[in-house]
Amino acid sequence: MSSPKNISSLIGEIYDAILDRAQWIEALDKAAQFVGAQAGALIWRNPVCRAVNVIHAFGIEPGYVELYRKHYAKLDPTTGPMLLRDVGDVASTTDLLSQGELVKTCFYREWLQPQGFVDMLQAGLDKSPTDVVHLCFMRSGESGMIDNATRDRLRLIIPHMRRAVLVGQLVDRTTAQAATFGDALDGICAGLFLVDAGGQIVHANASGQAMLAQGVLLRGHGDKLMSHDANTAQGLHEIFSSTARDRGDVGQRGGALPLTGRDGEHYVAHVLSLTAGARRPVGADDRAVAAVFVQKASLDLPSPQQAIAKLYKLTPTELRVLSGIVHVGGVPEVAEVMGISVSTVKTHLRRLFAKTGTDRQADLVKLVAGYANPLVA
Length: 377
Known about the structure:
This protein is an alpha+beta fold. The chain folds into three domains: 4-180, Beta-Lactamase; 189-297, PAS domain (Beta-Lactamase, 2-Layer Sandwich), CATH 3.30.450.20; 299-377, Winged helix-like DNA-binding domain superfamily/Winged helix DNA-binding domain (Arc Repressor Mutant, subunit A). The protein contains 15 helices and twelve strands. A hairpin with a 5-residue loop joins β10 (255-260) and β11 (266-273). The longest helix is centred in the middle third of the chain and has 39 residues, at 148-186. The radius of gyration is 33 Å and the shape is rod-shaped. Residues 247-254, 277-285, 299-303 and 373-377 have low confidence and may be disordered.
């Protein structure tokens, strides 16, 4: 194991364990050979109660690994002294307590000795108030006690072991955060699409995937988020481009677009910039410049419309006409849904324009979409 080729292979095994923890067993095998030991273990433990959280082991029978985890980890007389040492320090059992003290312990008599081990060599790889990581190698009676050559060999690989452990923990945390982020997005009832500047879908939550399957929105060429309606598709493209170009300046309330699914159902899409200010570090893919929230339109009036009614002093009928214009479409369609004449709808529409300071149906849609946007405080 002392040849450059073997050492390079060992270091490669160590770094392979960053993304695949199962590789730690192979890495410990080669590391044990390198330092001149017969077994090795990588142990994550709680420094307060000494309970073992994770253990990877080579050369130790599975039954003894489980015994150590459940019982002997708390009885290991070397743990306390090792916790007092600096990260990276190398220490044999006799560096931590005398051989006479060791052989009297039940840890030695019931765990080390039955396996044929006579000495251990350890090093701390990481230490925090809630977690410590120890690297440990065991030698059998045939190999004898730990010597300086064994210590020196372990010191050569400790920097690589430490980097692999620290980077692996960072990867685990990042993976957990990503999973939590994904779970949180899947918990949103609205369809959610994270898109890049070209409208390419970076991520879609569960509701968004369902909408794609139902044909509410389309997954176009190059995985782009598309709409059946050409005007809506163009509007989405302009918002995405503006978000990337102007660093999220799509208006104080964000962009909002009405759209119609393949089945004729009406939806409203709200676009939130992910490139502005504190929204940048939300945990989304770096390519994502905008989040598109898509909700099905309904004539059931939620509280934002009630706020609009109060602000603009709308009558109940005017409010229903407003909701109809937003969620149903043009004047004839609203008249049919509400069961009133086209002229009556037009009369209420003129009053709506006057009260809200608008002069087009599209402006009314934008007004309601802005107030209904759940992303705006």
